[in-house]
């Protein structure tokens, strides 16, 4: 939380509330998440600056001011709220404008809030190394096929590689593979052209459908909407398609959830996924 559909909705919901609003104060509640690259106190530098635009680049939200930026990378557990009375213990940064109050909370402190000058976005790790934006016009079938063409990665690892695709998180990587009927450990170079094409179409549909669902749900900003997912975090539940028990595998350090019948493994596997339970095997 949040992943691409969440971030797309956050940008859409925060923009009309914050655009044009001048900053009154910035309160650093927990400096562990802050990366101050401006050489001065943010509260002094940003005061009275109006927000000009809010852009998303992969997993980053870029709040753009004249000659200044605030970039937030929420990673696994970052959350946003416009509640002016937000005082939960996970609050990290509070940005008070002449209108709304933007709160950034993060109970694991894994996310980052960057204060930096215009033109210095390259100082943020991975910001300029993002691959094809999955919501952009550049994400075409031809571009996808060219990106995956020579990869020997396991397909789930490929989908999670932000330097190639920007950006699928854990939940939607699992959902895209389920929709495409592909086992998460399948090597990219063993996929047929038809399977690659179907995967591309599945990614587009899963992301689009999820954005539509989350928008219609209209939950509070800091609530993670995941009741629409079919396999993610549903270990031991029945597959919604065939009823087989959903399994969990470890793919290069990441948990992946899948149906062993709908997503059969290609070739011999160390773990016979169709007959044996496993939740800790690393491969």
UniProtKB/TrEMBL annotation:
One of its GO terms (molecular function) is DNA-(apurinic or apyrimidinic site) endonuclease activity. It comes from the Bacteria. Residues 2-111 form the Formamidopyrimidine-DNA glycosylase catalytic domain. Coiled coil: none annotated. Gene3D superfamilies: 1.10.8.50, MutM-like, N-terminal. PROSITE patterns: FPG_CAT, ZF_FPG_2. Keywords: DNA damage, DNA repair, DNA-binding, Glycosidase, Hydrolase, Lyase, Metal-binding, Multifunctional enzyme, Zinc, Zinc-finger. Belongs to the FPG family. This is DNA-formamidopyrimidine glycosylase. It comes from Leptospira gomenensis.
